[in-house]
Amino acid sequence: MSSINSAAPSVLIVGAGPVGSVLALTLLKNGIAVRIIDKTGPQIGQKGLGIQPRSLEMHHFLGTLPDILSIARKLPPCTVYKTPGGTEPLKTFELDPYEEPTPDSPYVNALMLGQHRQQSMIHRHLEKYGCKIEFHNELRSFEQFDDHVLATLVSKDSNGKEVLESVKVPYLVGTDGAHSVVRKALGLTFLGDTRNDVNMVIGDIEVTGGLESKVWHCWGNSTNLVTLMPTEVDEGIFTFILSGKDMDHAKAASGRDELVKTISSITDRNDIEFGNLVWISQYRPNIRMVNKFGEGRVFVAGDAAHVHSPAGGQGTNSGVQDSFNLGWKLALVLKGHSPSSLLDTYTEERLPVIAAMLDKSTLLLDRAFTRADGNINWERGREIKQLGVNYRGSSTLVDETIALNKDFIQTDSYSLAADGVIHAGDRAPEAPGLENLRVSQGPPTTTSLFDIFGPDHHTVLIFSSSKFDEEEIVSVLGVYPKTLFKTALILSAADAGEIELVGSQSKISKIDLVLRDRDGHAHKVYPALSGPYTVVVVRPDGVVGAIVGGVEGLRQYLNGVFSTLA
C-alpha cells in the first residue's frame, strides 16, 4: 500500500478533518496519490459527534467501519430534570430510538463518536498508504491554469521562520472549514443567515463526580438550557451545550469558573464536581451554502461549502458524503477513464441534497430553541439517518423502470420516491445471504452486496435465470479496463440449482461472481424488468447508477460516465 503515495500528488487536500480525510482515503483506494495539509494541529474535542447510518455504510465500503464500531456507541438516553432542585427526573427518552436492523439496512441506528477520534482513526488508515498529515502547513494562495493548479503553502521551520513552498497539482480540494481560504479565493457565494436569536456556549469538560456517565442530562428550556452528554469513551469527559435568551453567553464562555457558575445556576445543582475544561467556544448557528461546489480544477467540500445548525447531526455526515461523491469521479478523470465533465455532476448531485439538509436542520433548530412557549421539541424524524438521500435528478442516470422526471419520483433529495421502489440515483440496498457458487471444493461461501461494493469500482449486478448467456454484457464491458467493474450474476434459489458453471456447456465463465440469492433478499429489494435479465449498476459511492433491461441501456450509462473510452 505504501507505494501509492510515493508518487507526486495528483490532488492537494486543504484540511485534515473527517471530510478531507475521507476524500484522501477514497482517492488512495483508487490508486491516486494525494497530499493533505492542515494549518492547525490535531483537533481537540468532540464537536460533530453523531455518525448517521448512511455514513456507517460509507465506512463499510472504505474498510474503516470495524475501527469505528470498536469505540463508537449509541446515543445515550436523555433525562430532563425538574427545576428548581435539578435532581428529580421529569422525563427520560431516546433522542434516536433504537431500530432493528433489516437485511437491506444493516446500519439503522446513529452512533456517537467525536470528530477528533473519527479523523485520527481515518488518519491511521491513510498512513497505511504512506500518506501522513502535514499539520501546521497552510495554503496561502493558488492560481489555476488549463492543466494544473499552482498552490503556495507556508509552514514554519524550527526557528519559527516562515517557509514558502510552491506545489503544482492537477486538482485542489478545500475541506478547510467555514472560513475556507479556498472558497473565498474561488469567489463562490456563501449566502444565508446568521442566527443571532440562537446563541450557544459549547465545549467539553471533565466531570469528576455527581453525574451518571451513561445518560445525557438536560435542565431548563429554551429560555435557559444546559445539557451535559458523556463521550463515547468513559473517561469522565462530558460535552456541554448552554443556550438561552436570558444567559450572558460571553461571560459563561470566558473561562472554566464562569462556565461552572452558569451551569450551577441553571441546573440548581452544586453537587456536580467539575475538573479540567477541555475546550470552550461561543457559537451562533450560521446557515449558508455555496452556489456551486467548484470552479475549474478546484473544489470545496464539507463546511467549506455549507454550514448549518448542529440540530439533527447532519454536518459532518453531509461533508463526508460530499467527499465520497467527489472522490471516485476525480479518480476516474485523473486516470483518463472519464472526461472532466463528470466532475460537473459533483455540484449537480450535491447541491440539491445540501439545500434540503439546510431546510431540515433549520426546522429542527427552530423546534428546539425558538418556540414561544419555551418548551423544547426533541423529535427529529427518520430522514436524518440519510438513508433516503438520493441523486435522482442527476444527468448520468439511466432508469428503464420509470421516467425519473415524474413528480412522484422527484419528491426531494432526502427521501425515497413516493412509490417506495428503488430507482437510479437511490442508495443501493444491502442483501446478505448470497452464496458464491464458484467454489472448487466444499459448500459455497457466503457474501453480501455491501462486501462486493467498493470505492474503486462499479458493481454490475445481473438478475437472471440459469439460462443466462453472458456474451452480450461481457462484450459491452469488454471495451473498458476490467478493473473498473465487478460483475455478479444473481440467481434465485430455485434457478441456481440448474446452472452449469464448468465444462463445455457453461455459458458463464467471464462473470466475476455467480451468486445464489439464498434468502431472496436481493430479489426483494431490487426491481425486475420484463425480459431475460435486469442489470443494476451500482456506483463506487454505493448509489444506483442504472437499472436497465438490456445492453443498450447499459451502454447508455457507461457512455455517460466513461465517454472517453466509448
UniProtKB/TrEMBL annotation:
Organism taxonomic ancestry: Eukaryota, Fungi, Dikarya, Basidiomycota, Agaricomycotina
Cofactor entry: FAD
SUPFAM superfamilies attached to this UniProt entry: FAD/NAD(P)-binding domain (SSF51905)
The protein's name in its UniProt record: FAD binding domain-containing protein
Domain FAD-binding: residue ranges: 10-360
InterPro entries reported in the protein's UniProt record: FAD-bd, FAD/NAD-bd_sf, PHOX_C_sf, RIFMO-like
Keywords: FAD, Flavoprotein, Oxidoreductase
Domain of life: Eukaryota
Organism: Lentinula boryana
PANTHER family: BINDING MONOOXYGENASE, PUTATIVE (JCVI)-RELATED, TRK SYSTEM POTASSIUM UPTAKE PROTEIN
Flavoprotein among keywords: yes
